[in-house]
Amino acid sequence: MLVNDPDAPVNVAPNRGAAPPAGYRSLEFTSDGALLRGRLYLPDRQAAGAVVMAHGFSATIPMVMDRYAECLRDHGLAVLAFDHRGHGSSDGEPRGEINAWVQALGYIEAIGAARDSTGTSRVALWSDSLSARVALGVAALDDRVSALVCQVPALGAELGADDVSGDRLAAMERFLSTGPLRGPSDGWRSAPVVSADQEASTSALKPLTAYRWFIEYGGRYGTGWTNRVTFTAAPDAPDFDPFACAPRVRVPTFFAMSPDDEMPGAVSSVTRAVFDRIPGRKEVIEVDGGHFGLLEHPSPAFEQVSRAQAQWLARTLGTPA
Question: Which domains does the chain have, with CATH numbers?
Answer without folding.
Answer: 24-318 (3.40.50.1820)
